[in-house]
Amino acid sequence: MTITEKILAKHAGKNFVKPGDNIWVNVDVLLTHDVCGPGTIGIFKKEFGENAKVWDHDKVVIIPDHYIFTKDKHANRNIEILREFAQEQNLPHYYDVKSPRYKGVCHVALPEEGFARPGEVLFGTDSHTCTHGAFGLFATGIGNTDAAFILGSGKLWVKVPETMQFVLKGKLPGYLMAKDIILDIIGKIGTDGATYRTMEFRGEAIARLNMEERMTLCNMAIEAGGKNGIIAADKKTLAYVRKYTDKTINVFRNDSNAQFHSSTTIDVGELEPMVAKPYSPDNVAPANKLKTVKLDQCYIGSCTGGKITDFIAAATILKGHSVKTKTVVVPATKSVEQALIDETIDGQSLRSIFQEAGCEIGPPSCAACLGGPEDTFGRLNNAEICISTTNRNFPGRMGSKESQTYLASPYTVAASAIKGKITDPRDFLNVQEMEEAEEVKEKDDEENFNQ
Amino acid sequence: MPKIKGKAYVLGENVDTDQIIPAHHLVYNLDDPKERKLYGQHAFSGVPVEKAGLPKGKIPFVAAAKQKSEYAIVIASSNFGCGSSREHAPVALNMAGVTAIVATSYARIFYRNSVDGGYVTPFESEEDLSTLIKTGDEVEIDPDGGTLKVKGSTAEHPLKPLGEVADILESGGLFEYARQHNMIS
Questions:
Q1: Which CATH number characterizes residue A377's domain?
Q2: Binning pLDDT at 50, 70 and 90, where does residue A448 land?
Q3: Band of the pLDDT at A440, cuts 50, 70, 90?
Q4: Residue range(s) defining the domain that contains residue A203
Q5: Is residue A451 part of a domain?
Q6: Rounded to a whole number, what is the distance in Å from the CA of B41 to chain A's nearest CA?
Q7: B87: which chain A residues are within 8 Å (Cβ-Cβ)?
Q8: Is residue A441 part of a domain?
Q9: Which of A267, A292, A307 is the last residue before a domain boundary?
Q10: Which of its termini does chain B have fewer beta carbons within 10 Å around, N or C?
Q11: Domain check: are A201 and A263 in the same one?
């Protein structure tokens, strides 16, 4: 069996499952937020009764993150619904907006709070729940009805998916990031190239990626239609997870005779900085072929592009430069927001680098990644053209139907901000210097781990 | 399953959930009957005008200030419902009066939400009917026979069997199905 098959079999109490089997699995974590939580709660009460209790207090995680800093009265009412439910059910893992517990984007907060644990089954009412497969667990997005069913029963039916294996060999050049890899893959297989299937990433290039970069890869499995993305847990995974939880962890690996739908090998050394053009994540082209595209906005944020690694990358390019186009910076969570102050490049904080370059910094939330209410920070309210580190660029995704979004890595977005046009990050990076620094860092990491 | 009849509304490929119900509308309370109707009112309001109601386009799915559509059957190409996991999408179609969708393929979360919530029946066609059927055509679906017919034509277009989800759809959704099978009380 594959990793995904093994996790699902264990949670269904079976010794063996195969793709296509419909099974009922026991759920370890159910995640919801302010957009889908209220509807889930409504169905839960209608179906299980007004006085029903959730199946396990410790397994329900509610992280409001979508429409937080808005005057929209309906959006604010939805937060009230979450708050009342958390109080009524006495839920320990509720991260209230008006409290010091507020986190920001659920998919970045979840691992920071120790809920992304290898070997587990995690469902969330958000399509980007597949992000957490980066930690070697089965994680996928569901709707309100399925989530309400879990809230009351702790179970859900799943069809066991086939696994598409992506073997990433070679060394990722210093000017590329996980976003370039996943955009390249989506460009090759299309937005429905992995529908109903698992996308499993492995290989030496994966072993070198840090956990945040692995999250970026798995985050966008859904953009190829994938049910889940997954990366086998390794020492980096365990080192990360152990910082946040002491719960039992199960590490699964593919059996030597595991069956795959397909296996594709990609030499990451041969990739280029990639951009997805409007209006689909599979409409990709190398950044250096789009140099004539003028921009009205650059956006750095979201579950896929608003993590510490993403801001270090953007700041590496922006340091000492000024942006030519309106540039919006939205840290995914409070801890990322804090890291903008704590992390420095040559003694200057990331926050100061962004401010000096002329970027506008917003509070942590999903913000304009999905448009949202009209007063959302960074929303495209007109026929604007934006390059963004986010994950979707379907018509109207970041606001107006007339707007256009290009998707790219934080390096590419930062380089584009300086020129006001889509720009290959190699124009601003000293690649040789970066690669030397990377080698030193790898050696240090290795030594630290061995100690 | 009984036959499904209605006027067709035709769309292209990759109709994502932002086109089905744009994100700024996701704030209405699904449990408030009045607010729930707003989802019907804004269904498909994110579809670019020139692609709304093919082949000509520029046909609003729901007439101005109305909450129900005159089109009960949606015809589309591949990867219908891709994007987010918002259950508001099949709810919006259901509230607008859509009973069935016929597409060559679906994104899985949308498909699952349609079935488990019992909102609309998602049929898969063998051929891409979005280039054969025009918005406004009267169509008839025979779920048991697995065919779709357009009024005025004798051609029978094959639909794939619904398979294991037929039981959930016939029960009216996941909860009813689970009760009938004594999985929940």
A1: 3.30.499.10
A2: low
A3: confident
A4: 3-267
A5: no
A6: 17
A7: 36, 39, 125, 143-145
A8: no
A9: A267
A10: C
A11: yes
Q: Quick check: A261 and A162 in contact, CB under 8 A?
A: yes
Share of chain A above pLDDT 90, in %: 95
Instruction: Dump pLDDT digits (tens) for A41-83.
Output: 999 999 999 999 999 999 999 999 999 999 999 999 999 999 9
Let me know how long chain A is.
451
Please tell me the CATH superfamily of domain B4-160, with its number.
Aconitase, domain 4 (3.20.19.10)
Residues A288 and A419 in one domain: yes
User: What is the least distance, in Å, from the CA of B73 to any CA of chain A?
Assistant: 22
Quote the ipTM score: 0.96
The reply to whether residue A127 touches residue B23, judged by beta carbons under 8 angstroms, is no
Rounding to the nearest 10 degrees, give the CA dihedral for residues B101, B104, B105, B106. -20
Q: Which of A412, A167, A173, A166 is nearest to A269 (CA)?
A: A173
- Rounded CA gap, A368 and A404, in Å? 13
Question: Across residues A218-223, what is the average pLDDT?
Answer: 98
Structure tokens at A439: 């080698």
- Residue B39 per-residue DSSP state: H
User: Using only C-alpha atoms, what is the Rg of chain B?
Assistant: 16
Radius of gyration of chain A (CA): 21
Structure confidence by residue, pLDDT tens digits, A160-190: 999 999 999 999 999 999 999 999 999 999 9
- Whether omega before B143 lies within 30 degrees of 0, making that bond cis, reads no
Assess whether A253 and A278 both reside in one domain.
no
Are A66 and A106 within one domain?
yes
Could you say which residues of chain B have pLDDT below 50? none
Query: How many domains would you assign to chain A?
Result: 2
Confidence of residue A24 (pLDDT cuts 50, 70, 90): very high
Domain boundary among A236, A267, A298: A267
Chain A positions touching B109 (Cβ under 8 A) are: 127, 141-143, 222
State the Cα–Cα distance between residues A65 and A309, nearest whole angstrom. 20
Structural domain contains residue A449: no
Looking at residue A450, its pLDDT comes to: 53
Q: Does residue B93 contact residue B20 with C-beta atoms inside 8 Å?
A: yes
